[in-house]
Specification:
77% helix, 2 helices, 2 domains, mainly alpha
Length: 126
């Protein structure tokens, strides 16, 4: 019993002789246990407060969904995403179509200008 888990290098010592030494050692250990109990209680209180905060935040997050229906909320956002993707595709196609038609308009305008130039300056009549 000379080996101690808590004190591997040296066992606790107490002043006094006989029973007085034992009582002093027990009192010292009791004081140390009380100190550790206070430390553990403080740590437990901190952890409890943190856990309560996490629970409060999860509850607040859950209350953020209409009627607490997470699945319906997800479907709503999927619908919004699909609409946004459709709108993006529509505007991409619109820009492409307008670019093609605008290019044809430029080509036609240049052709009309060339035709007018040939008729007025080169005296070509058709």
């Amino acid at each position: 019993m000379g080996d101690s888990v808590k004190y591997p290098e040296q066992a606790p010592t107490a002043e006094g002789e006989g029973w007085v030494a034992v009582v002093n050692a027990v009192n010292h250990l009791r004081d140390e246990i009380d100190l550790r109990h206070v430390e553990n209680t403080s740590v437990n209180e901190v952890q409890t407060r943190k856990l309560d905060e996490v629970i409060r935040r999860v509850d607040a997050l859950h209350n953020g969904f209409p009627n607490g229906d997470v699945e319906s909320h997800r479907r709503y956002h999927e619908t919004l995403i699909a609409k946004a993707e459709a709108r993006t595709a529509f505007y991409k196609d619109l820009r492409s179509d307008l670019t093609k038609k605008g290019l044809w308009a430029v080509v036609a305008t240049v052709g009309i200008i060339a035709w007018h130039y040939m008729q007025t300056h080169l005296k070509i009549q058709y």
